[in-house]
């Protein structure tokens, strides 16, 4: 059986978050991991980046913007299924855009404009 060692990257930091993982599932709020004993570990705001069976490594990326984007997508899907428009959808999209704008501003402040 193949058990994974799981690493999560948040920003520039990567750390091991679990080992002996045999199950992983992405949800709108977190990635759920289960180890060989069936114990669950939830990594909030994460997506699966890489699965390497040969090395038995599973890599995740985590960010607060992922939670906002997933909430927007879930609401969008609900609106489509119900064939309705919701003002909540626009508000959620504005939250996603604001988080993206903030990330861009922080990078600009830290590294300045690109030269060339």
Question: How does this structure look, described?
Answer:
This protein has 116 residues and is an alpha+beta fold. It folds into two domains: 4-62, no CATH class; 65-111, no CATH class. The protein is 38% helix and 39% strand. A six-stranded mixed beta sheet has the order 4-3-2-1-6-5. Helix 1 (64-82) packs antiparallel against helix 2. The radius of gyration is 18 Å and the shape is flat. 16% of the residues are buried.
Order of SSEs: EEEEEEHH
Oligomerization state: single chain
* Percent of residues in helices: 25-40%
Order of strands in the sheet with most strands:
4-3-2-1-6-5
Largest sheet: 6 strands, mixed
Number of domains: 2
Topology:
Elements: E1 4-10, E2 13-26, E3 30-35, E4 40-44, E5 46-52, E6 57-62, H1 64-82, H2 87-111
Helix pairs in contact: 1-2
Please give a handful of descriptors for the protein shown.
single chain, 116 residues, alpha+beta, 2 domains, 2 helices, 6 strands, flat
Can you summarize this structure?
The protein is α+β, with helices and mostly antiparallel strands and 116 residues long. Helices cover 38% and strands 39% of the residues.
